[in-house]
Amino acid sequence: MKHETIAKPVVEIERLSVALPDGADRPYAVDRVSFRIAPGQLLCVVGESGSGKSMSANALMGLLPEGVRVSNGRILLDGTDLLTQSEDALHDIRGRRVAMIFQEPMTALNPLMKVSAQIEEVFEAHGLLTPAERRAKALSLLEEVGLPDPPRAAASFPFQLSGGQRQRVMIAMALALEPQVLIADEPTTALDVTTQAQILRLIARLQRDRNMAVMFITHDFGVVAEIADYVAVMQLGRVVEEGTVEQVLFNPQHDYTRKLIAAIPKMQAGMRAPVTSAPILTVEGLTKTYRQGGGLFSRPREVHAVQDVSFSLAKGETLGIVGESGSGKSSVGRCLVRLQDPDGGRVLLDGQDMATLRGEELRRVRRRMQMIFQDPYGSLNPRERVGRIIASGPIAYGEDPAKAMAEAADLLEMVGLKRDAAHRFPHEFSGGQRQRIGIARALALKPGIIIADEAVSALDVSIQAQVLDLLQSLKRDLGLSLIFITHDLRVAAQICDRVMVMQKGRVVELGSGAEIFDAPRHPYTRSLIDAIPGRAHEARMI
Q1: Closest CA to 212 of 399, 43, 423, 429
Q2: List of residues 6+ apart from 199 with CB closer than 8 A
Q3: Rounded Cα distance, 280 and 300, in Å
Q4: Distance (Å, rounded) from C-alpha 265 to C-alpha 541?
Q5: Of 437, 338, 451, nearest to 381 (Cα)?
Q6: Residues 80, 60: Cα–Cα separation, whole Å
Q7: Which of 63, 150, 251, 390 is the most buried if burial means most Cβ atoms within 10 Å?
Q8: 118-156 burial, b for 16+ CB within 10 Å, e for fewer?
Q9: How confident is the model over 160-215, as pLDDT tens digits?
């Protein structure tokens, strides 16, 4: 926790209101919001999806979506009201004086441009530096943000970098013109705990070294405890509580703030009765190697994503698979359902080896093991209505379409949505609602095993708690077994009977939740737990 700065504010937002189009669920996305940020100060804006925190940042950047407009208030940058500036003036201010880091760098970066060219483009857009100077500056920025091999990163395309490395590239681009104000919109949400800790330390160091004002948008109170000077809590477009970290996190006054803090998953796993039923799934010596490139004069690059992985899953059990990005946990999940073919090993589903099945036989058996993906919007067809999305699996297996559609409506009710949701499109739902649709789709084929791959990592804490409760109740009511792949150790501690820790494709520790989280044996497991943001302040928050 850091000291509170008392310098003169560089940003002052005064009674800002942002109006939504007619027909929206409320009149204002942001309703009479005021706050200030001084040089060297970090303001955390916290709230659920739809609270107005990102819309406030977009208004500051002059990047409101079409149909949304500022209806009242002022946004002052060093005393100049940005709302009175021309588009040309705002273009000059963006990047040069105010810059933004976005949540998902893979969508914010151009996939067809090398990293160095994208950073150089920032200078080119403002008519600054010669081409040689731009290249040198891009390399210098990549070094400043801590990329391990700046020349290689500069020559890479975004898809060739890890999530944490792409986020560092986004930070380098935001810092290129040395702005006074940095806006970070959920920049660590989808990152594993160790990469998240590195990015938070990087932002804190850059803020200190450059004396920047930082507006950090997040739903993670652990992050808030780690880095914030001042906190503003938003609900339905309004600031309902604000103050220092000490005031807001450790002595909250508003019911909504207390609710958000109460929804934070507890790190203590506690004692669970071991699941003693027979294994429904047995994995023996699973291996998977990815090969990239190679040619007449060069060898292909090999990544041993899964190396001799073995485990079992009992009927009715939840097995967590945790580890950093690149640990191999998602590769294990994709090999289990044969979205990727393993290179070796056996995957025994009720004694039948899925790794050897092909064609119609694989199709028949695979329906018993279904997957819920991390991004429910990307995995749902935006052109299909929700009912059809859920019913498409059973229909493909020969189910009568009318019956499949009726069962889809039943499933929507089961996951906490209304039956008429079947007639709507995915974009009409929030992130948490779309994840419920993804769960309903996975249940449509009546599987015995659900594999949830980072299924709640992008959701805010209260929605995350609702989805976790839903999975737990469905597992209990339907007799499901669950493989829960996650980088969020707090979530794994809450719902997993056993936990498997992976590092560089190998299993380094496997045991009950209490064994892994309360008494970890392996140094890597201890390093993951120590890296959880806000860990040192957890007891005071809960």
Answers
A1: 43
A2: 164, 167, 168, 171, 187, 188, 191
A3: 37
A4: 11
A5: 437
A6: 12
A7: 390
A8: bbbbbbeeeeeeeeeebbebbbebbbbbbbeebeebbeb
A9: 887 778 888 988 998 899 899 999 988 887 677 888 888 888 888 888 888 999 99
> What radius of gyration, in Å, describes the C-alpha atoms of the chain?
24
Give CA torsion, residues 99, 324, 473, 482, to 10 deg.
140
Give the sign of the dihedral formed by CA 489, CA 329, CA 469, CA 431. Answer: positive
* Identity at 226, one-letter amino acid code: E
Residue among 535, 533, 539, 541 at smallest CA distance from 220: 533
Q: List the domain boundaries for the chain.
A: 1-97+180-262
E strands within 159-278?
A: 181-185, 213-218, 230-235, 238-244
Cβ–Cβ contacts within 10 Å for residue 84, how many?
9
Q: How many residues does the chain have?
A: 542
- Cα gap 95→175, rounded to integer Å: 8
Residue with the two structure tokens 């899953």: 313
- DSSP character string of 47-80: --TTSSHHHHHHHHHT-PPTT-EEEEEEEEETTE
Q: Which of 8-22, 221-235, 356-370 has the lowest mean pLDDT?
A: 356-370
CB atoms near residue 263 (< 10 Å): 18
Task: Select from 3.40.50.300, 3.40.630.10, 3.30.428.10, 3.40.605.10 the CATH code of 1-97+180-262.
Answer: 3.40.50.300
Burial 24-56 (b: 16+ CB within 10 A, else e): eeeebbbbebebbbbbbbbbbbbbbebbbbbbb
pTM for the full predicted model: 0.81
Pairing state of beta strands 69-77 and 230-235? unpaired
The answer to whether the Cα torsion of 471, 476, 481, 487 is positive or negative is positive
Cα dihedral 515, 517, 520, 523 sign: positive
**Residues 269, 493 contacting (CB under 8 angstroms):** yes
